[in-house]
Amino acid sequence: MAVIASTILLVTEYRSSQNEVRSTLSVLVDPLKYLVDLPTSLVEHAARFVITYRALKLENERLREEQVIHQSRLLKFEALEKENIRLRALLENSFKLGEQVLVAELLSVNMAPYEHIVVVNKGTRFGVHPQQPVLDANGVVGQVFRALPFTSEIMLITDPNHAIPVQVNRNGLLTIAMGSGQLNRLVLPFLPSNADIRPGDLLITSGLGGTFPQGYPVAVVDEFTAQPDKAFATITATPKALLDHNRELMIVWSKSAPVPLITKSITDKEDHADEVK
Amino acid sequence: MRLNNQVGYFQIILTLVLAMCLRVVPLSEEMALLNPDWVLLVLIYWTLKVPERVGIFYAWTFGLLTDELTGRLLGQYALAYSLIVYVCLKFHNRLRQFPFFQQGLFIFFCLLSSQLLLFFIKNLQHPAQLHASFWLPVFTGTLCWPLVYGFMHFVSLFRFIK
């Protein structure tokens, strides 16, 4: 009987793309993930309830200040975006616009050691699909690894099996950042010793590869060691996103098709703006 | 010991579900490396205690659920668990007579072979490198066995509606 069971298993095992089996099983198992998460989320809720009036007021003030700053920055951003579109139109270049996000909450579940995979509470029921980029307020977190009906698994950028195409913000140098297995460390293994990169450089997503939208901050370079006897330098970077203490994540849908006929869309927009006036 | 037929399915399933919860409980990174394979320990306990109830079917089902829970390739825990439980079923009469220390040794080898199987399957999937800490759950699991044994014995004393 054991032999029969294991042969059935081996057969099911090698057909690795049976998603129906996984999602039906996950319906059985997902409640467990929520159950395990319950104590943590309860504590968090409780902490939210017993906050003092003073702390609330302070936080409120801080948030209001932040909002004003962000608002003013956004004003500028809008003008910059317009300018960027116009410049790109001059270069006859296509331009990607607009992303839609879904806020998902992390479930405190520990899947397996050695792998940086976290579970969030949104799944295919919300239209999540594998390979979607995931961000938090500070930067790129990872990508959706497996989407189940009620939860989905997200591979963090620091997972040893993960690589993300990045670009140095200062000079546009393209490279790939790989996970190191440590939560606060990325490595850039494919740059030669004479590459123009230095500590403090911001790495942003380059948009190559098509998974991550272009222009989101990923990490800051913190160490650059040239190795004269080897082909590549050793470079490490610290992720911008707070990977270890952040419960809210954003799952992003980027519009896959670039905006067609830039010049036309701008004139359309301006016409539209005139109509509004 | 033979009079344990009263152990209800309720208890068996409840403890297994509890073990699965413990399996994914959020711990710090170092602690997560030490987290033993609770499901296998509980399965071994029930196999030794009520071999006429808990067998390969339970092992396979809960192995599959564990696969899903921990996001592994479907079937690897199921395979490991059913093989280990098969061995336990074979030897359960002898194992019950063993003194505690010898039983612990047997548990150690069960956990070790399960971990070894998992490693083989992982290696088939894609060549993996082996950390020394990969074997830590085997040791902690063996150390936890008396704890599991005591707790499970306590649970099995309750009488629920069958």
Q: Strands of the biggest beta sheet of chain A: in what spatial order?
A: 1-2-5-4-3-12
| Proportion of beta-strand residues of chain A | 15-25%
Termini separation of chain B: 18 Å
- Beta-strand level of the residues of chain B, as a percent range? under 5%
Helix-strand sequence of chain B: HHHHHHH
**In angstroms, what is the radius of gyration of chain B?**
15 Å
pLDDT < 50 runs, ≥5 residues of chain A: 258-271, 273-277
Structural class of the helices, strands and pairings of chain B?
mainly alpha
The largest pleated sheet of chain A is described as:
6 strands, antiparallel, barrel
Helix content of chain A: 25-40%
- How much is the average pLDDT of chain A? 79
**Roughly how many Å apart are the termini of chain A?**
78 Å
By CATH, the architecture of the domain at 163-240 in chain A is named Beta Barrel
Overall number of domains of chain B: 1
CATH topology of the domain at 163-240 in chain A: Thrombin, subunit H
The coarse silhouette of chain A is globular
Largest interface: A-B, 34 and 34 residues
Kindly describe this structure.
The complex is a heterodimer of chains A (277) and B (162). Chain A has 277 residues and is α+β, with helices and mostly antiparallel strands. Chain A has a domain at 163-240: Beta Barrel (Thrombin, subunit H). Chain A contains 4 helices and 12 strands. Chain A has helices spanning 2-14, 19-49, 53-90, 262-276; strands at 99-107, 117-120, 133-135, 140-147, 152-156, 163-168, 174-179, 186-187, 202-205, 217-225, 234-239, 248-254. In chain A, the strands form 2 sheets. Chain A has a 6-stranded antiparallel β-barrel with strand order 1-2-5-4-3-12. In chain A, strands 6-7-8-11-10-9 form a 6-stranded antiparallel barrel. Chain A is globular and about 65 Å long. Chain A starts with a helix and ends with a helix. With 162 residues, chain B is mainly alpha-helical. Chain B has one domain (4-157). In chain B, 73% of the residues lie in helices and 0% in strands. Chain B has 7 helices and no strands. Chain B has helices at 9-23, 29-34, 38-49, 56-70, 76-97, 100-125, 136-157. In chain B, helix 4 (56-70) crosses helix 5, helix 5 (76-97) packs antiparallel against helix 6 and helix 6 (100-125) packs across helix 7. The chains are: A alpha+beta (277), B mainly alpha (162). Chains A and B meet through helix 1 and helix 2 of A and helix 1, helix 2, helix 4 and helix 5 of B.
